[in-house]
Design brief:
It is built from 14 helices and 19 strands. It has about 425 residues and is an alpha/beta fold. Strand 1 (about 5-10), helix 1 (about 15-25) and strand 2 (about 30-35) form a beta-alpha-beta unit. The longest helix is centred in the C-terminal third of the chain and has 20 residues, at about 390-410. Bound molecules: cytidine-5'-triphosphate (CTP).
Amino acid sequence: MGRLLLGVTGGIAAYKAVETARLAVSAGHAVRVIQTSTSERFVGKASFEAITGAPVLISEFDADPARGAYPGEPLPDRAPISHLALVERAQAYLIAPASANTLAKLAHGHADNLLCTAALAASCPIAVAPAMNHRMYTSGATQANLGLLAGRGITIIPPGEGNLASHGERGIGRLAEPVELLSAWEAMLGPASLAGVRVLVSAGGTREPIDSVRYMGNRSSGRMGYALASDAVRRGAEVTVIAANVALDDLPGTRVIRVQTAGELAAACEREFPSCDVLLMAAAVADFRPAQPSEQKLKKDRGVPSIELEPTIDVLAAVAEVRRPGQVLVGFAAEHGDGATSSGRQKLERKRLDLVVVNDISRRDIGFDSAQNEVTIISASGERLVPQASKGHVARAVLDEVELVRGSSREGVNGAGADARSAARV
Ligand code: CTP
């Protein structure tokens, strides 16, 4: 059963969203609702709150009394820092009905209400169910907006044809029926394709002490690793996250081991690796650390210190040496500009990995500390470009490739099948 988020915009069809929420709750899902303020003119919060048993959110400035928890989950000890906790924890986000105005805002990345902000920040799959007058639906602007959204991997649940709200008008624009909306929503949860599979994810960036207050670190936020963990949970995997200095809330359904240094991360990986089936090594691990960190704070009146560095252990290469058959190893490579792909391929071979996910860190709009990424996924004989998209979308592409590698190794072709299929998509 899933954690489903429902976004409701203004329109006569909002009453069908109430019925959709009711069906989802009856099917055993935990449902939370975000409404736009216009939608309140059509259905009140009280209807959704009674059905879902959870508070409805409307404004990004209102505190969530349930602190981002879904029905059935314990109330977290503290309120989340972000008003986006609800979407961070969602496994699928359905916006129904989606008005022409909201579709336009989603297509162009507006974030002027909680519903749209949540869509921008979503790492889970999103579906929109348009509902509007047929002339608005068939207008060039709405169709172009739907095209943009579909191009970004958002599912469009097409409206039906029939009598419309405007008296005497017939045409296309009626919101899909609640049963159809629920099945599209559930389809986004996906089959539990990784049920019983143990996935180990490293996320964030290590910090190596220089003295008692200073450290050598990097800009990794942990969002890519968390997006991978979240998608693995969605696919039914048993997920452990080794989080290096990540300032994000723990993901529901994961076991989190918090570490700081490359040494701690190496120890946690060595301990957890033997029992995992898939390792997604997304953490940015320091390659060097101060050889003799000072236990005191270095004082400036002692002059400019020179800091001797020593290499850290290459964790991924070390665990690759002791891998057992069937374990899938995925490395991440941050590379600069031209030659990124060939350098990523060298890492694949040198570290004996199944996949390397390369991103170009010469670009400021993607990668480190950004919500977006654009990557090339490299396997032994294929390459797949995942164009710029949310880290959630990129995570889904990476896990699709992991599933192909696992499928091929089960077929006993040592990854050749996966490579052929990956290559076919180049
Ligand atoms: N990695 C690791 N241990 C390290 C350094 C890196 O496990 N000490 C892992 C990272 O988590 C990543 C992959 O290795 O999945 C590639 O990291 P990267 O630093 O790009 O590779 P290097 O082989 O260290 O090469 P470079 O000289 O480009 O930094």
